[in-house]
Amino acid sequence: MTDMRPIEEVDSEVAGLIRGDLTRQNTHIHLIASENFASPAVMEACGSIFTNKYAEGYPGRRYYEGCEWVDRLEQLAIDRAKALFDGEYVNVQPHSGAQANMGVYFAFLEPGDKVLGLSLAEGGHLTHGSPVNFSGRFYRFIPYGVDRASERIDMNEVRSKALEHRPKIVLAGYSAYSRHLDYQAFRSIADEIGALFMVDAAHFIGLVAGKASPNPVPLADIVTATTHKALRGPRGGMIIAKEGYGKELNKGVFPDMQGGPIISQIAGKAVCYQEASTAGFRSYAAQIVANASAMAAAFTERGVRVVSGGTDNHLLLLDMRSIDPDLTGKEAATLLDSMGITLNRNGIPYDPRPPYITSGLRIGTSGITTCGMKEAQAVQVADLITRSLRHRADDETLKRLSGEISDLAQAFPPYPPDFPGHA
Ligand code: DSN
Questions:
Q1: Which pLDDT value is given to residue 419?
Q2: Nearest CA to ligand 1 atom 3
Q3: What HEC string does 393-404 produce?
């Protein structure tokens, strides 16, 4: 039999690191827009004996024996995701959002082919053609951006670039853009040039599941997503598409891009689809958006500029120069983390500063909403951030604010204090 002792006995060093991060998670206010807190049920599935199984292939057609339970599990995850998103085809095997995108590119592109995507500097993603990523090295991405005044995607620019470059894929989706996407306009543009219309919904698929954001699945050919952001599941990726693309997509994921799927993560995905199909999750998704809107209004009232003037989703971008022309995103994020508010620096549209420094902060409300915060606390968080940054040279005030942050964080922890592994 395998060693049945608990991790504290087998490896106290790693156990201590888990306890340390659990304390950090339970005592900070978490605003990283791509993070959330998975339920114990999701984590139990991810930590289950399914970690032991190899299952290259797909349900009913594996390259290994002993897949009878795995087949049922993967099919259950697929069926749940199809029902949740109105999908015709679903692939739950990509290990991450980046690999879901890679699977799609492998399925439909040859090296050097053109793709139209939102530039990383204006809210896109590494895998949308950044030169430091495989996507920018293998394929020719044509970036579109946002309008300088409205800071929203300019669909006229998207169309004119599509007509000029005739990409094989028109890609919509973002990691730092706070407005709804015009799926109908993207669809029309893709149709005009005979391109595939792909949506990277990694950030907002949880809002789609909770009916708090329009569903791109009916209009797009292919939608990629992650399961660990607003969807609040395990770390992982997925692809939803029209049935007709299924054969190529299956091959694009396995064997083109991955070997054996991580079955234990697929178990966690199945649990999260179940959780996301409930009325409780729909209230949760609506609250994420309400909290982000309340926060955007609170920052605006306090004189902090919110990019594009607000938000339709779970995230907002703040322009630090509205607090002080010399304040950078890096300085602001570092200070706030030291005070107990964890978020990330982020470039804002037409940012004159480099990506490691930036002029902005990105804030997401999925995590604090899981912790039970509502609009009143969202406003309080905006107030604490604003006062901390305005008083960043005043140690006495910062000390007092750190205390307020700690009190608020500990009143809304993600996990109970007696959660297994807690110090
Ligand atoms: N890096 C993630 C994010 O923070 O948005 C996306 O991959």
A1: 87
A2: 34
A3: CCHHHHHHHHHH
Which amino acid belongs to residue 1?
M
Q: Is ligand 1 within 6 A of the CB of residue 313?
A: no
Classify strands 341-342 and 29-30 as parallel, antiparallel or unpaired: parallel
Sign of the Cα torsion 306, 307, 311, 316 reads negative
Helix, strand and coil percent figures for the chain, each rounded to 5: 50, 15, 40
pLDDT tens for each residue of 283-337: 999 999 999 999 999 999 999 999 999 999 999 999 999 999 999 999 999 999 9
- Please tell me the total number of residues recorded for the chain in this structure: 423
Residue 423: its pLDDT value, please? 46
Residue with CA nearest ligand 1 atom 2: 34
**At 208, which helix (H) or strand (E)?**
helix 205-209
**18 alpha carbon to ligand 1 midpoint, in Å?**
22
Give the CA dihedral 207, 211, 213, 215, nearest 10 degrees: 100
Question: What is the identity of the amino acid at 225?
Answer: A
User: Atom 1 in ligand 1: which residue has the minimum CA distance?
Assistant: 34
133 lines ligand 1 (CB under 6 A): no
Other C-beta atoms closer than 10 Å to the C-beta of 60 total: 9
Report the separation in Å between the CA atom of 175 and the middle of ligand 1, taken as the mean of its atom positions: 6
Residue closest to 367 by CA, chosen among 415, 418, 423: 415
Distance CA 331, CA 287 (A): 30
Structure tokens at 56: 């290259």
Residue from 175, 203, 342 whose mutation best tests the ligand 1 pocket (most atoms within 8 A of CB): 175
Asked if 179 contacts 149 with a C-beta cutoff of 8 angstroms, the reply is: no
Helix (H, G, I), strand (E, B) or coil at 51: helix
Among residues 308, 283, 305, the alpha carbon closest in space to that of 382 is found at 305
Residues recognised as catalytic: 54, 56, 200, 226, 229, 235
| Torsion of Cα atoms, 395 then 397 then 401 then 403, to 10° | 70
Q: Is the CB of 99 under 6 A from ligand 1?
A: no
Q: Where are the alpha helices (DSSP H) in 224-278?
A: 246-253, 263-276
- Ligand 1 binding pocket includes 34 (Cβ within 6 Å): yes
What pTM value is reported for the model? 0.97
Pick the residue whose CA is nearest to atom 4 on ligand 1.
34
Q: What number of other Cβ atoms are within 10 A of residue 401's Cβ? A: 20
- Distance between Cα 423 and ligand 1 center (Å): 29
